[in-house]
Design brief:
Elements: H1 2-25, H2 31-108
């Protein structure tokens, strides 16, 4: 059912667009006026599309900058946490090395 409703809606929209185009072409205006109307409609539609692309482009750039900042912050946080852990690991290894040296010294005597 939902697919049928979607198809019907698309058919209505396409029919309205075709009907408007045919209405303009067969209107009792002079050819010059009709061409002007068609050109104006085309210009308006292309201007609208241009603005939509500009908005979309700005939105994508904004989201990319936000993601970049977030990514940089995450990497920085990870590095700072890792360096803290690295220091902790080094301390533990140094203590173990000292214990091994003491144990080895007892066996050397």
């Amino acid at each position: 059912m939902p697919n049928s409703t979607g198809n019907t809606l698309v058919a209505l929209v396409v029919g309205a667009i075709v009907g408007a185009g045919v209405g303009i072409l067969f209107a009792p205006d002079e050819g010059k006026k009709t061409r002007r109307k068609i050109k104006k409609s085309f210009d308006d539609a292309s201007e609208n599309l241009k603005h939509r692309f500009e908005d979309l482009n700005a939105d994508i750039k904004h989201k990319a900058e936000k993601f970049k900042g977030t990514l940089e912050e995450n990497v920085e946080s990870l590095l700072s946490r890792s360096s803290y852990k690295a220091e902790e690991v080094i301390d533990v290894l140094e203590k173990k090395l000292e214990q091994l040296k003491k144990a080895n010294a007892k066996f050397q005597k």
